Each structure stands twice: as structure tokens, then as C-alpha cells.
């Protein structure tokens, strides 16, 4: 599959998503059903890419999941918010810092020390989305009583040079 085909499919999905907002509440399930039933040929064109994306998503979700589905042993981590696999730092053969996923039941004290050390080295910072939402809120706040739409409030702020 070419990058062009993938971009075209993304644009197609974007149009369906926009349409779903205009006709009611957003529902990923409804969009999936619509694509599967009304546009099966489009799915066939990107099936290999969808398989890869789907498998990656399932693997990531499994790593983040809190509880094992197949274990009969009591879960000693059950009341903690850790996923089944924890990111543990290591230095690769080229001296570059990397993170590896390790089953939480196999964490060593050295692993825990390395995790804590790496996290202590980096200052806590808000995510980019959080920062952007805060900026949007600050710019839009003066226009709250004038409109209910954030995009309209941002347009007013832009107009007023804010």
C-alpha cells in the first residue's frame, strides 16, 4: 500500500467522522459499521495495513491492561495502577537510552531503581494536549458569555488580537 492510498483513506474517514458530528453524537461503532457495510472495497485496499495497526493496538492494550486473564495465582499488583508490563530503562549497544517492556511480576529492585532514577532525572511536565487546552481556555474565557462555541471564541480572540 502506498502512502497516498493511506492518506486518501484517512481523508475518507475524516469526512465520515465530520458527517457523524453533523448528524448527531459521535459513535466509532456506527462509523465502523458504515465503512464495513457501505465501503467494503475501500477496506480491501488497505486490509494489510489495518491488520498491522489492529495487532499493534491489541498488543499495546494488552501491555497496559491491569490484570492477567489466564493466571490462577493471586495478583500481588492488583490494587496498583500498573499495567501487566512495565517500561524499564536500559542502555542499548550504541549507548542510547531505551525502554523495554517487562512483566511486572519479574521486576527486580534494580529495575525499580532504574525506573525511579530516570523519572527523577526528568522534570514533570504537562502533556502537550494539556498545555494546548490550557492555552485555548485562557484565550476563549473572555468570550464565554458571548458564544457557546470554543471555535467562535477563538475567532473572536484572533479578531481582537489576543
Automatic annotation (TrEMBL):
It comes from the Bacteria. Residues 118-142 are annotated as: Disordered. This is Uncharacterized protein. It comes from Ferranicluibacter rubi.
